[in-house]
């Protein structure tokens, strides 16, 4: 995080870069799960889209909790309530 801050911290906040990176991973995960659901899971589009969206939402929340907002990390029941 310090290296990222030294490279681009004066232009873009590091937290924004982490948040955007997690979002990009969420898009990739959504598309991969959608493809798997359609091709191998035997799901129709609406079902595959629902599963992929839920997977991406949970993954993004978890990654943001661990990396982006780690100083306010939610644990246990607070994690479930925050999600």
Characterise the protein shown here.
By secondary structure, this protein is mostly helical. The protein has four helices and no strands. It is flat, with a radius of gyration of 16 Å. It starts with a helix and ends with a helix.
Chain-wise SSE layout:
Elements: H1 2-8, H2 14-39, H3 45-68, H4 77-82
Helix pairs in contact: 2-3
The ordered string of helix (H) and strand (E) elements is HHHH
Distance between the termini: 25 Å
Mean pLDDT: 85
Characterize the biggest β-sheet. Answer: none
Q: What spatial form do the alpha-carbon principal axes imply?
A: flat
Spatial extent as radius of gyration? 16 Å
Number of helices: 4
Give the proportion of residues in helices.
over 70%
**Strand content range:** under 5%
User: How many strands appear in the DSSP assignment?
Assistant: 0
Structural class: mainly alpha
Low-confidence stretches: none
């Amino acid at each position: 995080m310090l290296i990222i801050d030294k490279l681009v911290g004066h232009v873009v906040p590091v937290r924004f870069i982490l948040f955007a990176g997690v979002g990009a991973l969420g898009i990739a995960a959504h598309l991969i799960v959608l493809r798997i659901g359609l091709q191998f899971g035997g799901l129709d589009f609406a079902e595959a889209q629902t599963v992929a969206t839920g997977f991406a939402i949970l993954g993004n929340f978890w990654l943001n909790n661990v990396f982006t907002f780690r100083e306010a990390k939610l644990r246990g029941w607070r994690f479930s309530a925050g999600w």
